[in-house]
Design brief:
Helix content: over 70%
Radius of gyration: 15 Å
Strand content: under 5%
Structural class: mainly alpha
Number of strands: 0
Number of helices: 6
Distance between the termini: 10 Å
Oligomer: single chain
């Protein structure tokens, strides 16, 4: 992959690692409540669900990191798989939770996917 494609994949991995921290460890704090638009009561009552969701974001981050550092052709294949996973999760999240997810998750994933594909097939 080119440096730009690798940086895009790593940036998306960092975003999902940050989301993991928000959902698993900071869910009831003002920072996470502001990011997700929740009340203190809702955050407290959904703490376990958010932690589970955060774990899945951690798996996405780990897969993206693996794709960015693995040698070819594995790096390309893993990156494509996890970028598609992030994009699909973003579309589902935008349809069921908040349209904002399209811009925070789906658009960056599709941009990184385009860069990875362009780097591979140039």
């Amino acid at each position: 992959m080119t440096i730009l494609a690798t940086v895009a994949v790593l940036a998306l991995a960092a975003l999902h690692a940050y989301i993991l921290v928000l959902e698993m460890f900071l869910w009831t704090t003002p920072r996470a409540r502001s990011a997700f638009g929740t009340t203190p009561e809702f955050a407290e009552s959904t703490r376990a669900l958010a932690a589970n969701q955060g774990l899945y974001n951690g798996f996405l981050a780990a897969g993206l990191l693996w794709g960015a550092v693995a040698p070819e052709p594995v790096g390309f294949q893993v990156s494509v798989f996890f970028l598609v996973c992030v994009a699909v999760a973003g579309v589902y999240g935008a349809a069921t939770a908040s349209r904002r997810i399209l811009f925070v998750q789906t658009l960056p994933a599709l941009t990184a996917l385009a860069l990875v594909l362009l780097a591979h097939y140039r």
